[in-house]
Specification:
This protein is an alpha/beta fold. The protein has nine helices and eleven strands.
């Protein structure tokens, strides 16, 4: 297949492009900036996706668009810029997908779109584990932008009859955050943990790339969107997840599926079974060995 990856010059984008090329696809990367080095089989086109005429010019002649371009950090830019860049660029990408007859949009969403990732207010889940049908409550600029992006993809896929996938992956451990990650890992390896309001969900960029590849290939019906939560196998806490959530909330939310935490007491509160069953997703990277993978940048 020929696959366009927006934001392909970014940290997760490099892993996604590498994974897709390794699977035999050809890839066009679209980004504001050139990748440090184009990979064999990769073509680069510069484009600002907040400008609709540019999106329509650069997003064409592909089987699938993987849309990763965004501002990934709510604190790096003024909030109204995070909201507008992320939402408007996703709208423009969806317009290009439908007007240029592209079959599938794979949207790089976030578990923050649920309101339980990056958040200001500590909202208690209605039940555990949190699956794709659990109600959402995003309430800060980045999470709202990711949620709006998914809604645009849902409604566009339905109205215009293309296929769409939303990958709601957790905090991606990247080299740019390595100092903070290392401090956290060392504390947790020593069994010294302190709970904040974070549920402990994270994922390796290599595992996000695995899901991107699977999302490009999975058989889907036209006119609908399939969303998937994606995390590592376990949280980054050295204690069972229900203990972590009790420390956060005092009283646990209803555990609807007790087997889930019996089979893996450290499983993240986000239910990844839909991704396992439909995509064949198998996360391979774990926080205890993070030095082996966190610094790896595909070339
Ligand atoms: N990093 C995480 O922990 C995380 C977690 C969940 C979801 N995500 C999502 O994954 C995607 C990739 O995140 P990342 O961490 O690799 O970010 P990144 O900043 O490393 O990469 C994003 C890329 O998008 C490009 N871009 C931004 N605005 C653009 C525009 N208007 N037109 C064209 N290109 C533009 C940037 O130049 C950059 O290369 C984002 O959509 C982000 O919201 C990230």
């Amino acid at each position: 297949m020929h696959i366009i990856v927006t934001g392909g010059a970014g940290a997760i984008g490099r892993h996604a492009v590498h994974e897709l090329l390794s699977a035999g696809h050809s890839v066009t990367t679209i980004d504001l900036r050139e990748p440090p080095q184009c990979m064999s089989g990769e073509q680069f086109i510069e484009g600002d996706l907040t400008i609709q005429s540019e999106a329509l010019r650069v997003i064409r002649d592909a089987d699938v668009v993987v849309h990763l371009a965004a501002i990934p950090n709510p604190d790096s830019d003024p909030p109204e810029r995070v909201l507008s860049v992320n939402t408007v660029s996703t709208y423009n990408v969806a317009e290009a997908v439908r007007r240029n007859g592209i079959r599938r949009l794979v949207y790089g969403c976030s578990e923050s779109s649920s309101g339980f990732g990056i958040h200001y207010v500590n909202i208690k889940p209605q039940y555990l584990p949190i699956d794709e049908t659990h109600p959402v409550c995003p309430h800060e600029t980045y999470s709202l932008s990711k949620r709006f992006g998914e809604e645009i993809a849902v409604w566009y896929a339905q109205a215009y009859g293309f296929e769409a996938v939303a990958l709601r992956y957790a905090w991606v451990w990247l080299p740019r955050d390595a100092a903070g990650i290392q401090a956290l890992v060392e504390r947790h390896r020593a069994g010294n943990w302190q709970v904040g309001s974070w549920f402990g969900a994270y994922i390796a960029p290599q595992d996000v790339a695995q899901a991107v590849r699977q999302a490009c290939d999975v058989p889907l019906g036209c006119g609908r969107l399939e969303a998937f939560y994606l995390t590592a196998e376990s949280t980054f806490y050295p204690v069972p997840t229900l203990e972590v959530l009790t420390a956060i909330f005092g009283e646990l939310p209803e555990v609807r599926d007790a087997d889930y935490f019996v089979s893996n007491p450290y499983a993240t509160p986000f239910d990844t079974r839909k991704a396992r069953n439909m995509l064949g997703f198998r996360p391979a990277y774990d926080w205890r060995h993070y030095e082996e993978w966190v610094y790896a940048t595909p070339k």
